[in-house]
Recover the amino acids of this structure.
């Protein structure tokens, strides 16, 4: 048996085209949810109330747009590979939630599109990740920085907490209905759980991968999503149930996450810029 070809860190054409195909659906869905949250029953796959639940799902889609745009133009596979498991988990969770609550969905074209997308996306994205797995040999970019273990562990812990909480909402949606920061149904509770799970799956690879280049697309995408959630909380503050203890906790967690993720991303980017300057300086005669 011949030896396998060495990893080339390529992004396959199929991976790029999958990202390009997914982006318009995310753009349309996010636009509809943000612009017409009160008309989701006719324009979207199901009627979502209150509008803040629609905004939360749209915020996840905004982050997805940034990630898949980065995938479409990425020159190396390792720069985007850690986002693919998160897509599989998120899309798979929404497929399960859909099948559990089919009676809540509208019998319209948006639902048909929704069903096709969520029935195929987890399989397609997982298949691409498996097909590309040998492309990343663990080598850093030509200009790269190693993230120290302390901030990596902190971010993994934050992500794990978000994932576990999201998993609890998904597994016991009726429990979430009674205490969440805004009114939920069992379906929107599971959708909320799926959204919260994203950061946990994205952050987990920090346990074994210290290359900042492997997260330069993912963390800005998470920041964009968090910023969209923060704006949603401001715009739809009337949907928040301030008599519930979870409301100030959730608002505080979103604000804290923006500060933590923003500071971490800025710090890594400053170190990366310094490494780039050092490399250019070393090349000068």
């Amino acid at each position: 048996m011949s030896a396998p070809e060495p990893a080339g860190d390529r992004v396959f054409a199929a991976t790029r085209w999958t990202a390009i195909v997914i982006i318009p659906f995310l753009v349309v869905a996010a636009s509809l949810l943000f612009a017409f949250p009160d008309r989701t029953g006719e324009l979207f796959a199901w009627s979502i109330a209150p509008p803040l639940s629609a905004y939360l799902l749209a915020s996840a889609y905004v982050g997805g747009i940034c990630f898949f745009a980065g995938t479409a133009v990425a020159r190396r596979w390792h720069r985007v590979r850690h986002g693919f498991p998160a897509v599989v988990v998120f899309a798979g969770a929404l497929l399960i939630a859909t099948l559990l609550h089919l009676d809540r969905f509208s019998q319209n074209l948006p639902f048909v599109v929704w069903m096709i997308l969520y029935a195929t996306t987890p399989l397609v994205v997982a298949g691409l990740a498996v097909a590309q797995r040998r492309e990343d040999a663990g080598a850093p970019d030509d200009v790269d920085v190693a993230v120290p273990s302390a901030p990596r562990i902190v971010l993994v812990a934050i992500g794990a907490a978000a994932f576990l909480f999201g998993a609890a909402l998904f597994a016991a949606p009726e429990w979430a209905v009674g205490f969440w920061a805004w009114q939920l149904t069992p379906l929107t509770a599971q959708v909320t759980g799926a959204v919260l799970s994203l950061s946990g799956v994205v952050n987990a690879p920090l346990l074994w991968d210290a290359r900042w280049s492997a997260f330069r697309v993912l963390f800005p995408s998470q920041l964009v999503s968090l910023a969209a959630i923060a704006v949603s909380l401001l715009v739809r503050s009337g949907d928040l149930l301030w008599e519930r203890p979870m409301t100030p906790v959730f608002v505080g967690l979103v604000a804290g996450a923006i500060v933590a993720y923003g500071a971490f991303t800025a710090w890594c980017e400053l170190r990366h810029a310094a490494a780039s300057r050092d490399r250019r300086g070393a090349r000068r005669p």
User: Anything to note?
Assistant: Confidence is low (pLDDT under 50) at residues 1-6. Residues 246-283 form the longest helix (38 residues). Residues 13-283 form one domain.
